[in-house]
Amino acid sequence: xxxxxxxxxxxxxxxxxxxxxxxxxxxxxxxxxxxxxxxxxxxxxxxxxxxxxxxxxxxxxxxxxxxxxxxxxxxxxxxxxxxxxxxxxxxxxxxxxxxxxxxxxxxxxxxxxxxxxxxxxxxxxxxxxxxxxxxxxxxxxxxxxxxxxxxxxxxxxxxxxxxxxxxxxxxxxxxxxxxxxxxxxxxxxxxxxxxxxxxxxxxxxxxxxxxxxxxxxxxxxxxxxxxxxxxxxxxxxxxxxxxxxxxxxx
Length: 250
Description:
Number of domains: 1
Shape: globular
Largest sheet: 8 strands, mixed
Order of helices and strands: EEEHEHEHEHEEEEEHHEH
Mean pLDDT: 87
Number of strands: 12
Radius of gyration: 18 Å
Low-confidence stretches: 243-250
Helix content: 25-40%
CATH topology: Spore Coat Polysaccharide Biosynthesis Protein SpsA, Chain A
CATH superfamily: Spore Coat Polysaccharide Biosynthesis Protein SpsA, Chain A
Distance between the termini: 42 Å
Strand content: 15-25%
CATH class: Alpha Beta
CATH architecture: Alpha-Beta Complex
């Protein structure tokens, strides 16, 4: 019997409080375009054949909400989504997910780990495929979009153009699984944390990381205006996240 090919694990971080939205609950479970926000990311994953395990990291006590959100997905049921209690920081939640996957990573069943924010419900399946493919080719992949209209303040308050183009980093971010696991184990030993996965890889890992084109529809829902914009994006069948061209390749 031929052994199954290694799969990519898809980790969705859903520990946001929703305080800046004024939601009074974990924003990942707020209704958005007819379903819980988190269900969009889970459905994009169901469209990508390379993805195997799906891990939903949530706040302790939110497990029931997470399982209900998984049941609302068109592509995956709750039996296919592994719910894990996260920590008090993003970094701690990433560690919880990697600890959960460690056995499969070490055994070679998982060769890439994708880390995604539930607050980015409009990433789309095309971007997921891009970051997985790039991570397998070079080691790591981070979606980026250019930042325009940003200048640097020099001495005496003078404004000058930046020395190099600036980019805003998005998720999903994908990395070869074994080196990523080792980078996080090293970060735990050294007490190092970062604001996102690529920051940990940069400080504690050895992987080469390549920028891939992100897209402006892949917004992060932080404030009420972001939620309204995401509703527009996800309700429009002409948008790239609803089956159009891959981001950055129109």
